[in-house]
Design a protein that fits this description.
The chain contains 5 helices and 2 strands, in the order βααβααα. With 95 residues, the protein is mainly α. The protein has a single domain, classed as Arc Repressor Mutant, subunit A (Orthogonal Bundle), CATH 1.10.10. It is globular. The structure holds a DNA duplex (13 and 13 nucleotides).
Length: 95
DNA sequence: GACATGACCGCAC
DNA sequence: AGTGCGGCCATGT
C-alpha cells in the first residue's frame, strides 16, 4: 500500500492479491480499519471494487478520504473514482 | 466448534 | 442501475 504512487488508487481485492493474500479483500478492509489515526500510510488510495468509495460521505474518515483524493488531483463522481484513469498496478511502477 | 461481523468481490436477476 | 446471495480470509464472542 505504501508503494501506491500519489494520484493513483487500488482496490481492496487488488491490494490483497498483490500482497500475496489471495482473495482476502475483507481482511485488508478490517486491517485498514485498525490503522492508527497518525499513520502515514496512504490508506485513502485503497478503494472498493470499480473505484467505489466504501467510506460514506459525512463520516470523519469518509470526508478525510475524499479530501485527500481530491488534493491529489482525482475527481470523485457519485462516490467513485475513475479506475481506468487512476487505477494502479505494480507492473506500471516498473515503467 | 458454532455463529456473527467486517473500510470486500463477482455474478445473477 | 439497484438488489440479493454466496464466497472469500481472519478475528472476536
Amino acid at each position: 500500500m505504501a508503494q501506491i504512487p500519489e494520484g493513483k488508487v487500488i482496490s481492496y481485492g487488488e491490494l490483497a492479491a498483490l500482497s500475496g493474500l489471495g482473495r482476502a479483500a475483507r481482511w485488508v478492509g478490517r486491517t485498514l480499519s485498525q490503522l492508527p489515526q497518525d499513520t502515514r500510510l496512504p490508506w485513502h488510495r485503497v478503494l472498493a471494487a470499480g473505484g467505489r468509495l466504501s467510506l460514506a460521505a459525512g463520516t470523519p474518515s469518509g470526508e478525510e478520504q475524499r479530501a485527500r483524493l481530491r488534493a491529489e488531483g482525482l475527481t470523485i463522481r457519485n462516490d467513485r473514482v475513475d479506475m481506468r484513469r487512476h487505477g494502479w498496478r505494480p507492473m506500471e511502477a516498473n515503467g
